[in-house]
Amino acid sequence: MARAAREAARQADGPAEDTEPGALRVGVLAYPGCFASEVFGVPDLLTMAAHVAGPDAPGYRVTIVSPRRRVTASGGTHLEVRPLREVDVLVVPGFELLLDTDLDARLARLRAETEAIRAHAAAGTAVVSLCVGAFLLGEAGLLDGRRATTSWLHAAALAGRCPDADVRPEHLVVTDTGVTTTAAFSAMYDFALDLIRRHSGDRVARATARVALVDDARTSQTPYVDPRLLPRPGGAFSQRVMRHLDQNLADRYDLAALAHAFQVSTRTLLRRFADETGHSPLAHLRASRVRRARHLLETTDRTVAAVALAVGYQDPGTFATLFARHTGHRPSAYRTAFRRTRPAVVTDGDEPDPRG
Questions:
Q1: Looking at residue 53, what DSSP letter applies?
Q2: How far apart are CA 167 and CA 311, in angstroms?
Q3: Model confidence at 295: pLDDT above 90
Q4: For 67-84, what is the mean pLDDT?
Q5: R_g of the chain computed on alpha carbons
Q6: What phi, psi does 64 have (nearest 5°)?
Q7: CA torsion angle for 203, 204, 210, 215 (degrees, to 10)?
Q8: What's the whole-number mean pLDDT along residues 212-219?
């Protein structure tokens, strides 16, 4: 497969391969049902970077490739594809992955793509997945023994499917020995900016981020996690305990009282809860308190101290430390970044009258 890819590259490219000396060759692997926006998102940002860098700087030579002759992406978008070829970087976009998707069947239909991914990696090509494209890398065996990430919504499924991978759901971009994985959807821009930084330098990466209005200072996807969208773990017993804790967030955590409320010993409570959920009641309570605090910081003007008190913490410092551990932001910084009440767009009448 690797030899076939190189031969296809020579036949398709011919002398044009030498028209852009120093250009980074990037191939985007298109396949049926892949997200069209992820096929074009990275190439578009690379195009902007090339303009920012100027005509004399080494640019980017991007090709949409596929082992198939025709590809229809998400939304019925028909893609013009080229044969597999030798590239420096192979980008694998994601696809729509619902919680009830039959992944075995979906990946079985993409066997040609996983073989191509495996062949490019064996030939020394840097391989990158966007969002749940990581599942194709996992199917190709590229995640075994490596650190990886994907959308926080599907990180547990990736870890379950690839038990030999070290899945880091908090990270935006993870690179481990030639294999890069990224978090959900917009993290493709975090990867692209990092690629631009490595190929074109910090100045070009920063300028490109500003031209495109892309945040180039993100470090984690943790602040975006919404546990309400995740499958709720546990059986009937732990569900009742979690509901009780959620309804009494501001109360002091008292394990003995909690066990008494459910007519079991503390030891039995901890064992049954852990068996059904994989963690402790206190861990669940802390996560619920942080989730409630995030909502209050996003939607109200309450002080950090008042928010801390509302979710059961007398000491704002203790609350701030816990909040930062869960979200990657101190409470005040989180409010600045995620407050919902500030206008995102100025429309007629929103501008203040300079006459007072």
A1: H
A2: 30
A3: no
A4: 96
A5: 24
A6: -90, 120
A7: -80
A8: 87
